[in-house]
Amino acid sequence: MNKKLIALAVAAASISSLANAAEVYSDETSSLAVGGRFEARGVVADNDEGSTKVTDKTRVRINVAGKTDITDSLYGIGFWEGEYTNEGTSNSDGNLDNRYMFAGMGGTYGQVVYGKADGSLGMLTDFTDIMAYHGNEAGNKIAAGDRTGNNLAYTGSFDLGGNNLTFKANYVFEGNSDTTTSTGLGGIVTESTTDYDDGYSVGTIYTMDMGLSFGAGYGEQKIVGDEDAQKQAFGAISYTYGDFYVAGLYQDARHTVANSDKQRGYELAAAYTWDKTVFTSTYNYREDRSNNVDLNDAIAIDATHYFNSNFRTYASYKFNMLDSDKVGKAAASDEFVLGARYDF
């Protein structure tokens, strides 16, 4: 992949599969790359009846990235990524999700895009969202801070004498909606749709050349028909020393859980790289402070072996410490996952 697409990969760092993208077209001013992944995942966990169930979480992602030089200091970009999931049943038609769809311009002082793109809080949850499957339970983000449509987003990265400062800001216009599906007691499946009004988020990361990084962010999101805006603040820190990596994430939120005014959560993460194998572990805790209810409480461990830059296998286990009498057997079940992933 040429230097133009490497620059694009840095600007869209959350799209990890782009790093292995294959350039399919290039001329003096433009380039186009195609990438993605095939990932087989089997999840072993208990259902609400207490019996063990294996769920197929296999997925496929395809992305297309384009970049063209307009002047020596100005360029245009476009990006799309779709994900097809098996949905866990042998006779399912599956589900296609357009994860990213955006275009924009960039230059010396940053990049501006519009469409379905990342909000500004994802780069903070990335501090601890390092596992092959589990983790990131305490890093749930409001819609404006997460990947969302109708989103005008700015990203700037600046070299400060060996250190680096990254700043992101985005504004989400009204008209977005999310439909979530959940399975309750007795296997009853329910769907709920949330219609969003305007929202925004901002975030910044300062990285020192000695391996220490700090991050902070804030976001607000209004919901149609609700007078109280969702509010969320994040703080993150990480340290890299040789083959060791440790990180922490803290969030404080208001009005982001149904029938609750306050929630708080944190995630601790650690990783060790040994030759071609990476061992990771996280602890996640999130609570509904208004009703004194634990929303997440789990320790997870995994091991990922990289055969080369394109192919890896992993095993992941989550020790779930929620009370099954309060949340149900499925929501409190431990999970074991085996996966294989091919990136291209």
Write up what this structure looks like.
- This is Membrane protein.
- It is found in: Cell outer membrane.
- Pfam families: Porin_4 (PF13609).
- This protein is mainly beta and 344 residues long.
- The protein has a domain at 118-306: Porin.
- It has a 16-stranded antiparallel barrel.
- A hairpin with a 2-residue loop joins strand 6 (95-107) and strand 7.
- The protein has three helices and 19 strands.
- Residues 1-15 and 182-189 have low confidence and may be disordered.
- The longest helix is centred in the N-terminal third of the chain and has 9 residues, at 3-11.
- It has helices spanning 3-11, 122-125, 324-327; strands at 22-26, 30-46, 52-56, 59-71, 74-85, 95-107, 110-117, 148-160, 163-172, 177-183, 189-207, 212-223, 230-241, 244-254, 262-274, 277-288, 293-306, 311-320, 335-343.
